[in-house]
Amino acid sequence: MCRHLAYLGPDVPLAELITSPKLGLYRQAWAPLHQKHGTVNADGFGVGWYAGDDPAPARYRRTGPLWADANFPDLARVIRSGAVLAAVRDATEAGADGEAAAAPFAAGPWLFSHNGAVRGWPASLSGPAAGLPPEALLTLAARSDSALVWALALHRLRAGAEPGRALAETVLEVAAAAPGSRLNLLLTDGTTVTATAWGDTLWYLAEPGRYTVVASEPYDDDPHWTEVPDRTLLAATRTDVLLTPLKEPTA
Length: 251
Fold this sequence. Notes:
Strand order of the largest sheet: 3-2-4-1-10-9-11
Number of strands: 13
Distance between the termini: 26 Å
Order of helices and strands: EHHEEHEEEHHHHEEEEEEE
Structural class: alpha+beta
CATH superfamily: Aminohydrolase, N-terminal nucleophile (Ntn) domain
Shape: globular
Oligomer: single chain
CATH topology: Glutamine Phosphoribosylpyrophosphate, subunit 1, domain 1
């Protein structure tokens, strides 16, 4: 369910990451090559990017499929950034939240995306949700599994957890409450990228010191794309990629 990518590197047009690659998110919206669940990502899309010294990212999100937005190709051609998170969405189930349900979700300097689905949603997450403060629940971006997973991760970030710990603990908590969930999470603050591979594909392409791309699947045929093993936490900068195994939660 869904495809997403994050990029850190020199400023490039959004088109270079999303619409121009022959196997990019634009094509993955209707013809992903490695997606294990679902076939068409047409329930919305979004892109977030950082500009200049402003720590807060900008976002562009829509409810329909990426290929149906006549405005996006022009925007992607002229907007440049050195830190980007983009996603195309295949909804876990039907809903009326519109653009609010499309990744990337945002808070402060953070952009977040969830590729996957929470099994047994929403009943399965009643336990984790009970641990959130009331204001976190009242300000959920959307009534979707991804929005609640984001709320759980954001709560940890605001409590001072490092990004890797925040994502790892969120994945293990949700996996314990809803076994069989697919929880590929992607988080950036414009200088780092943190991701989890949990139930779906994740790849990265890096030229140390220049750029790093983390994506659900390769967007071109570059032989240096590396697949991340399942049950893994990825932490990356422009110069480094670190992989750490994640353990299944114990009963």
